[in-house]
Structure formats: structure tokens, C-alpha cells
């Protein structure tokens, strides 16, 4: 755990103060992005958006990691961290492929049969990616649905949103941290933890349950302005649970 903390904090310092271009290389991009490279499934875990993003992940590791490492040993804890981090990146990429395919389908539908209503729905569902001037185009196109110039402008805006979505990177060790969190909850379910906000005691199993439900809720609600990769969090929880369950079956290997 100490080595993971030092490496992750060190990489953040390097990218912020010395080599900011590393974040562009090491963040995880959509597989169709021109910036995508296979090693990003590993390196994205060591990149963070800002100090508070880094602090929240490393603070969670600092709280839950040491006891797990004492119980599981350094080999198992590094396997847990890396498999959950890489696995959540892979699963999130698959989820991203599904989302981009939905955008492609909307664009293809519009291209085959240009319709102001289709464009209006596209703008509404992706409004956080447009500047306010888009509503002038929405209004003009609604009034002139057969205007070829407006049709081309609408299609161009849709393609621009699709390209922007493809090139949004993911960074952070949250998937790996959620794997540690579920492992702690499964191995020490009745351990009393004292929360800072709100200041109250809670058992580990209930804290993990809350985080799991919170993550699932945000996946289904899907706030378009929420830039947190909740699906990666859920992936880390699931992969961590599978690993710990498998290890617990063979106690001679686990202990």
C-alpha cells in the first residue's frame, strides 16, 4: 500500500509540475480515439484530474488498505488493486463503446431522414456538450426543416459531439479503490467505522452497501453533466467481490 501511494502521488506531482503531457498519454481514451494506446488500461490508474481527486482516492487507500494488507499479504493486495483497476478500465471502455454506438445510431438515423425532432432530442440529451448558440440553430431548423444548409449544420454539430465524447479521457484509481472497499466489507463486515460527514459510527458492510447503491443509482439516473465514471466504480466493486469470493474458497491459499 505504501508503494502504491508513493507511486501514485509521485506521478501526480510529475504531471502537474514537470511533465503535464504525460496525462495526455497515460489517461484512458475510448478505443476509437486517435489518442488511445493499449497501455492506458494500466497507466490511467496513476493519473488524477486534480488534487482533491487524488486525495479522495489515496485517503480511502490509506484508511482501508493497511489492514487488508496485513490480513491478505502484499501479493494478494497488489493483485486486488491492479486487477480491479485494469478490469474496471476494460469494462468501462466496453460501456463507452455502447454509449458511442448509441450516438452513432442517432446520427445515422438523422442522416437517412433529417428531422428537426430527432435533432432536438439529440441536443436535449447532450445539452451539456453544446454552447448556448445551439438553440439558435434548433429554432432556425425547426422553422425551416427542408433547408439543406441547416441540415448540414445540424449534422455537423452532431458529429462534433460524437467526436468530443470519443476523446474524453478517464483518469483515476477509483475502480481499484472500490475493489479494496468491497474486499474490506466482505472480510471485515462488522468492523465499526466512524464517518467524518456525518460524524457517526457505521459498520463496514453498510458503508459498502451504501456506496454500491449510490453508484447503481447514478448509472441509471445518468446525469449528463456528471463527469464521474460511476460504471467504473461499480466494475471495481464487482471484480473485487469475485476475487475475494474466489480466494475465500481455498483458505490454504488465501491465508
TrEMBL record:
<feature type="transmembrane region" description="Helical">
    <location>
        <begin position="77"/>
        <end position="95"/>
    </location>
</feature>
<dbReference type="InterPro" id="IPR035952">
    <property type="entry name" value="Rhomboid-like_sf"/>
</dbReference>
<keyword id="KW-1133">Transmembrane helix</keyword>
<feature type="transmembrane region" description="Helical">
    <location>
        <begin position="51"/>
        <end position="68"/>
    </location>
</feature>
<protein>
    <submittedName>
        <fullName>Rhomboid family protein</fullName>
    </submittedName>
</protein>
<keyword id="KW-0812">Transmembrane</keyword>
<feature type="transmembrane region" description="Helical">
    <location>
        <begin position="12"/>
        <end position="31"/>
    </location>
</feature>
<feature type="domain" description="Peptidase S54 rhomboid">
    <location>
        <begin position="164"/>
        <end position="244"/>
    </location>
</feature>
<feature type="transmembrane region" description="Helical">
    <location>
        <begin position="228"/>
        <end position="247"/>
    </location>
</feature>
<comment type="similarity">
    <text>Belongs to the peptidase S54 family.</text>
</comment>
<keyword id="KW-0472">Membrane</keyword>
<dbReference type="GO" id="GO:0004252">
    <property type="term" value="F:serine-type endopeptidase activity"/>
</dbReference>
<dbReference type="InterPro" id="IPR050925">
    <property type="entry name" value="Rhomboid_protease_S54"/>
</dbReference>
<keyword id="KW-0378">Hydrolase</keyword>
<dbReference type="InterPro" id="IPR022764">
    <property type="entry name" value="Peptidase_S54_rhomboid_dom"/>
</dbReference>
<dbReference type="GO" id="GO:0016020">
    <property type="term" value="C:membrane"/>
</dbReference>
<dbReference type="Pfam" id="PF01694">
    <property type="entry name" value="Rhomboid"/>
</dbReference>
<feature type="transmembrane region" description="Helical">
    <location>
        <begin position="176"/>
        <end position="197"/>
    </location>
</feature>
<feature type="domain" description="Peptidase S54 rhomboid">
    <location>
        <begin position="39"/>
        <end position="95"/>
    </location>
</feature>
